[in-house]
Design goal:
alpha/beta, 3 helices, single chain, Double Stranded RNA Binding Domain, seven-stranded mixed sheet
Length: 201
C-alpha cells in the first residue's frame, strides 16, 4: 500500500512472459519452477513488436528477459524485478497468454490435454486472452494493467494433427498479443501523462 513510483523518464523497460509452472506447447516450454515460469523463446512476439514498444514516447529502450539472469525458483514478481534491475531497466512489463479450446459449448482445456482423433465434427473455438501489468523495478509499484482477447472459429475436424492445433494456437495468440500491444500503448500514454510530469517536474 505504501509503494510509490520511482522510475525516471525516459524509461528503459524489461519484458517477461510468465505462465503457470509446467507450461509447454508444441515447440516451446518454460524455464524455472515455483509460482510461475518464464517463456524465454519467442513464438508469437516479433522484432517489429519490440521496435513498436521502443518507439513509444518516453521509452529509452526495451530489454527481453534472459534465463541467464533468472533463478530456477521463481516465487514472486520480486524475483523478476531483481533480474530486470540487473539489466539496468526502470520498469518491468510482465505479460501472460491464456489459450482455451472449446468444441461447441464444451471446454476441452489447454493444448496439452487435447486427445487427437477423438474430436467430433462440430464447431471448434480457440480463445486467447493476453494480459499484462507494468511494474516499477525499484519499488514494485503497479502503474497499470492491460488485457486483450482474440478468437477463431473452425471445424473441429481441422485439428487432425498436433501441428494443426499449434497453428490455431499461434494464430490467436499472435492476434491477442497485437491487441495487447495496442492496449498497452493506451496505458503508457496515461502513465507518461501522470508520472513523467511528476518525476521530471
Amino acid at each position: 500500500m505504501q509503494r510509490e513510483p520511482a522510475a525516471p523518464f525516459p524509461s528503459r523497460i524489461a519484458l517477461a512472459r510468465v505462465q503457470s509452472t509446467g507450461y509447454h506447447s508444441f515447440n516451446n516450454q518454460c524455464y524455472g519452477e515455483g509460482t510461475f515460469c518464464i517463456v524465454t523463446t519467442r513464438d508469437i512476439e516479433t522484432e517489429q513488436d519490440l521496435d513498436r514498444l521502443g518507439r513509444l514516447p518516453m521509452v529509452s529502450g526495451i530489454a527481453a528477459m534472459s534465463r541467464i539472469l533468472l533463478s530456477e525458483k521463481l516465487q514472486s514478481i520480486k524475483d523478476l524485478r531483481l533480474a530486470a534491475a540487473s539489466l539496468k531497466t526502470d520498469m518491468l512489463l510482465v505479460y501472460s497468454i491464456d489459450t482455451r479450446f472449446n468444441v461447441e459449448s464444451t471446454d476441452i482445456g489447454p493444448l496439452s490435454i487435447i486427445s487427437l482423433g477423438f474430436l467430433p465434427n462440430k464447431k471448434a473455438l480457440v480463445t486467447t486472452t493476453a494480459s499484462a501489468a507494468l511494474f516499477d523495478v525499484r519499488t514494485g509499484y503497479v502503474y497499470g494493467v492491460a488485457e486483450a482477447t482474440a478468437t477463431e472459429q473452425q471445424r473441429a475436424t481441422t485439428w487432425s494433427s498436433e501441428q494443426a492445433i499449434e497453428n490455431s494456437r499461434l494464430k490467436t495468440e499472435a492476434e491477442s498479443f497485437q491487441k495487447l500491444l495496442s492496449e498497452f500503448e493506451k496505458l503508457w500514454q496515461d502513465v507518461v501523462a501522470q508520472h513523467a510530469r511528476q518525476i521530471n517536474g
